[in-house]
Amino acid sequence: MYQLASAVTLAIFPVLVIAGALKDVTSFTIPNWLNIALALAFAPAALVAHFTLGQVGLHLGVGLAFLFAGMVMFALGWIGGGDAKLFAAAALWLGWPAAVAFLLYTTLAGGGLAVVLLGARKSQLGVLALQGPGWLNRLLEKDGPAPYGVAIAVGALAAFPHSPFLDALKTLPFGI
Predict the structure, then answer these.
(1) DSSP structural state of residue 101
(2) What region does 95 belong to: left with phi over 0, alpha with psi -120 to 50, or beta?
(3) How far apart are the C-alpha atoms of 99 and 77, rounded to whole Å?
(4) Tens of pLDDT, residues 35-48
(5) What is the pLDDT of residue 60?
(6) How many angstroms separate the most distant Cα atoms in the chain?
(7) Could you tell me what percent of the chain has a pLDDT over 70?
(8) Are 10 and 176 in contact (CB under 8 A)?
(9) Each residue's pLDDT tens digit, 43-77
């Protein structure tokens, strides 16, 4: 039973983070239900991982700090509102000190995303996009927005192996 609970718990985080990235690429939105589901799924996952109240509190603090940072970036027009919420929900799961790696990986992925989008938008790919799905047209629009949820997902997935959450699941009697 512990193995199944651990496996399901481990799957929730990457599945929802990847779903957020895919939704952002195709629509430039990340639905509230997805961010809420990711945040709410942390509670049963913390129970499965046998987190102490102190560990839960630390994860909540990290999530709130990232929510504040995301709100500032949203207010400055750097990211969208869904991105800010995904940023916070992922940080809630990752906790400390994995949040530092998350921030670094997300920043690097965001820079890479910007370079790829700028290159694609200046190349002949825009002409090819006209023959593709509508979301690809929007993605390759000159001076269009960037789906930063992709960078957040890459950063979250890269930082997840460093998470105290993952370490806690490894120590369970029938852990991963």
Answers:
(1) H
(2) left
(3) 23
(4) 999 999 999 889 88
(5) 97
(6) 56
(7) 86
(8) yes
(9) 988 988 889 999 999 999 999 999 999 999 999 99
Which single residue is written with the structure tokens 């496996």? 7
Residue 37, amino acid: A
Cβ 105 vs Cβ 154: under 8 Å: yes
How far from the centroid of its chain's Cα atoms is residue 96's Cα?
16
How is residue 124 written in tokens?
A: 């002949």
Mark out the alpha helices in 1-95 (DSSP H runs): 2-27, 32-48, 53-75, 81-94
Residue whose token pair is 């990986």: 105
Please check the confidence at residue 103 and state whether its pLDDT lies above 90: yes
| Extents of the domains making up the chain | 2-170
Alpha-carbon distance 168 to 7, whole Å? 13
Q: How far apart are CA 11 and CA 20, in angstroms?
A: 14
CA 98, 71, 143, 21 torsion-angle sign: positive
Hunting for tokens 């509670």 — which residue is that? 43
CA atoms within 13 A of residue 111's CA, in its CB half-sphere: 5
* Cα–Cα dist 163/130, whole Å: 42
